[in-house]
């Protein structure tokens, strides 16, 4: 099984596990579902990757940061449950599992390394999007649709929407938002503040495979496996909107 297949397999399997947790804890509180989902998916992914790629290091949102990753040639960057709030609300479908692989390119840290594989599972939608083969989204005429947080849309996304004459598409997790652009139900995702590498690594890997633009809000490259995993801003969009969006966000 190659790295692309492994990413897709473990992301999808973690998603199936999470669906089971949701059913099992249907009568529990939302906080209990959140805690159980985070822990069980994290434990599953750590075990699955340790068995399949024992020499690799894992950076997980739910695990302690292992400093060995800064010297490693291969690092898996995972978010066991992206969109914990949406997962905890029974019936919502906009949550995800992220699994990405970063390789060093021969140097330590994130200065020259790159994402080489990734998968975003959307378990409640029965979908897993994974590298290397992702169909690019079909072009849609009309005003751009801007994917934003359903609870706290950033001011920069509102400015982009206003300047481009777009419409807002509120939804949950970062993975679900990027997936919406990949699948063609949104055109632009702009985020500022409050994200880490595990929030975007897998979605960015898959978006790139689909031919989408990915960058920081100033247009600079996204770098992963850095000493500080904070990566607070992100742009993913259809290529034809890149210049217009960056004219607002830079």
TrEMBL record:
<dbReference type="InterPro" id="IPR020583">
    <property type="entry name" value="Inositol_monoP_metal-BS"/>
</dbReference>
<dbReference type="GO" id="GO:0000103">
    <property type="term" value="P:sulfate assimilation"/>
</dbReference>
<protein>
    <recommendedName>
        <fullName>3'(2'),5-bisphosphonucleoside 3'(2')-phosphohydrolase</fullName>
    </recommendedName>
</protein>
<feature type="binding site">
    <location>
        <position position="81"/>
    </location>
    <ligand>
        <name>Mg(2+)</name>
    </ligand>
</feature>
<dbReference type="InterPro" id="IPR050725">
    <property type="entry name" value="CysQ/Inositol_MonoPase"/>
</dbReference>
<keyword id="KW-0479">Metal-binding</keyword>
<keyword id="KW-0460">Magnesium</keyword>
<dbReference type="GO" id="GO:0046872">
    <property type="term" value="F:metal ion binding"/>
</dbReference>
<feature type="binding site">
    <location>
        <position position="61"/>
    </location>
    <ligand>
        <name>Mg(2+)</name>
    </ligand>
</feature>
<dbReference type="Pfam" id="PF00459">
    <property type="entry name" value="Inositol_P"/>
</dbReference>
<dbReference type="GO" id="GO:0008441">
    <property type="term" value="F:3'(2'),5'-bisphosphate nucleotidase activity"/>
</dbReference>
<feature type="binding site">
    <location>
        <position position="82"/>
    </location>
    <ligand>
        <name>Mg(2+)</name>
    </ligand>
</feature>
<feature type="binding site">
    <location>
        <position position="79"/>
    </location>
    <ligand>
        <name>Mg(2+)</name>
    </ligand>
</feature>
<dbReference type="GO" id="GO:0050427">
    <property type="term" value="P:3'-phosphoadenosine 5'-phosphosulfate metabolic process"/>
</dbReference>
<feature type="binding site">
    <location>
        <position position="199"/>
    </location>
    <ligand>
        <name>Mg(2+)</name>
    </ligand>
</feature>
<dbReference type="InterPro" id="IPR000760">
    <property type="entry name" value="Inositol_monophosphatase-like"/>
</dbReference>
């Amino acid at each position: 099984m190659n790295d692309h297949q492994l990413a897709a397999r473990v992301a999808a399997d973690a998603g199936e596990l999470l669906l089971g947790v949701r059913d099992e804890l249907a009568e529990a509180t939302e906080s209990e579902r959140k805690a159980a989902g985070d822990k069980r998916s994290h434990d599953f992914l750590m075990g699955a990757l340790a068995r399949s790629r024992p020499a690799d290091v894992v950076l997980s949102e739910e695990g302690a940061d292992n400093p060995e990753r800064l010297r490693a040639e291969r690092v898996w960057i995972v978010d066991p449950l992206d969109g914990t709030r949406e997962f905890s609300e029974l019936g919502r479908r906009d949550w995800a599992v992220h699994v990405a692989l970063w390789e060093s390119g021969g140097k330590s840290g994130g200065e020259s390394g790159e994402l080489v594989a990734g998968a975003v599972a959307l378990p409640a939608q029965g979908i897993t999007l994974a590298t290397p083969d992702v169909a690019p989204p079909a072009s849609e005429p009309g005003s751009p649709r801007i994917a934003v947080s359903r609870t706290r849309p950033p001011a920069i996304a509102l400015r982009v929407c206003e300047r481009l004459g777009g419409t807002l598409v509120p939804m949950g997790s970062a993975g679900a938002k990027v997936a919406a652009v990949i699948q063609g139900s949104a055109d632009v995702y702009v985020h500022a503040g409050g994200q880490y590498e595990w929030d975007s690594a897998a979605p960015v890997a898959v978006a790139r495979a689909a031919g989408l633009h990915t960058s920081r809000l100033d247009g600079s490259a996204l770098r992963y496996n850095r000493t500080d995993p904070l990566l607070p801003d992100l742009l993913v969009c259809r290529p034809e909107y890149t210049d217009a969006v960056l004219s607002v966000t830079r």
